[in-house]
């Protein structure tokens, strides 16, 4: 089945070698990986997800995803392979393994964290069943042989013709972390991974009227404000929002991510943390009503339509770059929390879980994962300096939240071979 690209367009045109737009999930298992069991698991898993077994092609001046029946690649190194290339059999998805780690790379335009979690849930079911010779419960897991509902295939954004008209509003520039901290010459993309016990962090959230995504956003806002107490620029965190509920499309595999803008207003900064958390939750509530989310969907649909209205790849690249630069000017940092992973009985075999994506163009994206009783916060940066991570950890310490800085890695994502870059 051929799928004409629409919702994927912006991600395709803003991707480049320096910042490939993809998701890399890394899972450290309890034991060394059994390559044979992993190959069986990947082969069976991909039978359940035919809409991810596709090849990018250009037909009549438009890009499409065409059926790709070549095997999905499993590299024996966590460096992975280049997507949409001969090395990946021209797939936009690939797997990898090394020691006791399993890796997944997937183009972010084709799916988001919610969609990637579904793939991992299926993979772990098949892998752990064979690796540990156990019978795991099937409840809530998409399995090979399922009848795949049309709602998983269809792009719900394309289908909607009744979206509300988003209001025309000017949004002011926000604090730019790189400029504020003088990090213009620090260009080493880096990931700091911080772990917090789920019970520890949820206790703190309950005590202070918070939720994981809003609390991470608030603690980051507080940390930034203390680093730059005299700034007149707005500290504005973009908290990612899953658009599926508002679209009434819970099964859609597409990348359906909007954002709630959380501003750390000057008058808030003297408030106790519980009152600040209540204010942030109020901002999230106001921006996640169905109408508000659908306005965001309409805005994104308009952007994709505008990019597609350009006739050449070079014109489309220019339009996408302009939109991206605007987003970089109005957002200080981004926080993303898919929600509790709920990998069912397979979680007992997981020791570490990481989600890496391209960092926000203005500096930092924090990917928050909740797996096997632990939150992991991956601070994905376009620079190596620990200045913001240290300030965030100081917020944890000041609020008596026990944490573990697990490791620091150079950010490495799978490159995507792009037709116009050949």
Walk me through what this model shows.
35% of the residues lie in helices and 23% in strands. The protein is built from 13 helices and 15 strands. The strands form three sheets. Strands 10-9-11-13-14-8-15 form a seven-stranded mixed beta sheet. The radius of gyration is 21 Å and the shape is globular.
What is the number of E strands? 15
Strand fraction band? 15-25%
How many H/I helices?
13
Using only CA atoms, what is the Rg? 21 Å
- Are there runs of 5+ residues with pLDDT below 50, and where? none
Topology:
Blueprint: E1 3-4, H1 9-14, E2 22-29, H2 35-48, E3 54-59, E4 62-67, E5 74-75, E6 93-98, E7 101-107, H3 113-131, H4 150-153, H5 156-159, H6 177-180, E8 190-197, H7 198-207, H8 212-227, E9 236-242, H9 244-247, E10 257-263, H10 273-287, H11 290-309, H12 313-330, E11 333-340, E12 350-357, E13 364-371, E14 374-381, H13 387-398, E15 404-410
Parallel strand pairs: 5-6, 9-11, 11-13
Antiparallel strand pairs: 1-4, 2-7, 2-12, 3-4, 6-7, 8-14, 8-15, 9-10, 13-14
Helix pairs in contact: 2-3, 8-13, 11-12
Features:
422 residues; globular; alpha+beta; seven-stranded mixed β-sheet; five-stranded mixed β-sheet; 15 strands
Please provide a brief summary of the model.
This protein is an alpha+beta fold and 422 residues long. It has helices spanning 9-14, 35-48, 113-131, 150-153, 156-159, 177-180, 198-207, 212-227, 244-247, 273-287, 290-309, 313-330, 387-398; strands at residues 3-4, 22-29, 54-59, 62-67, 74-75, 93-98, 101-107, 190-197, 236-242, 257-263, 333-340, 350-357, 364-371, 374-381, 404-410.
């Amino acid at each position: 089945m051929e799928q004409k690209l629409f919702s994927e367009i912006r991600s395709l045109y803003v991707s480049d070698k320096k910042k490939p737009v993809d998701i890399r999930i890394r899972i450290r298992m309890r034991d060394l990986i059994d390559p044979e069991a992993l190959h069986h698991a990947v082969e069976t898993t991909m039978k359940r997800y035919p809409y991810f077994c596709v090849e990018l092609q250009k037909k009549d001046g438009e890009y499409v995803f065409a059926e790709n029946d070549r095997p999905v690649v499993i590299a024996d190194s966590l460096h992975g392979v280049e997507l949409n290339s001969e090395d990946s059999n021209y797939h936009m998805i690939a797997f990898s393994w090394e020691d006791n780690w399993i890796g997944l790379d997937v183009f972010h335009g084709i799916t988001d964290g919610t969609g990637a979690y579904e793939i991992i849930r299926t993979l772990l079911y098949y892998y752990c069943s064979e690796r540990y010779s156990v019978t795991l419960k099937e409840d809530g897991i998409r399995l090979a042989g399922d009848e795949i509902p049309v709602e998983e295939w269809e792009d719900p954004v394309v289908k909607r013709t009744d979206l509300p008209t988003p209001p025309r509003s000017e949004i002011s520039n926000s604090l730019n972390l790189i400029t504020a901290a003088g990090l213009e010459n620090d260009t080493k993309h880096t990931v700091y991974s911080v772990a917090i016990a789920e019970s520890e962090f949820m206790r703190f959230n309950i005590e202070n009227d918070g939720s994981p995504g809003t609390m991470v956003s608030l603690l980051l806002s507080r940390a930034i404000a203390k680093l730059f107490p005299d700034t007149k620029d707005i500290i504005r965190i973009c908290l990612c929002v899953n658009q599926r509920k508002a679209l009434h499309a819970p099964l859609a595999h597409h990348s359906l991510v909007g954002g709630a803008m959380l501003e750390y207003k000057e008058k808030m900064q003297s408030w106790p943390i519980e009152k600040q958390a209540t204010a942030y939750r109020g901002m999230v509530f106001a921006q996640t009503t169905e109408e508000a989310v659908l306005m965001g969907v309409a805005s994104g649909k308009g952007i994709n339509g505008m990019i597609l209205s350009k006739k050449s790849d070079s014109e489309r690249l220019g339009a996408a770059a302009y939109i991206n630069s605007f987003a970089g000017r109005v957002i200080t940092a981004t926080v993303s929390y898919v929600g509790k992973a709920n990998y069912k009985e397979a979680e007992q075999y997981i020791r570490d879980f990481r989600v890496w994506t391209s960092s926000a163009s203005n500096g930092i994206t924090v990917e928050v994962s909740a797996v096997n009783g632990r939150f992991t916060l991956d601070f994905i940066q376009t620079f190596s300096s620990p200045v913001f991570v240290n300030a965030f950890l100081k917020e944890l310490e000041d609020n008596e939240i026990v944490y573990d800085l697990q490791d620091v890695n150079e950010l490495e994502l799978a490159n995507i071979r792009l037709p116009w870059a050949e």
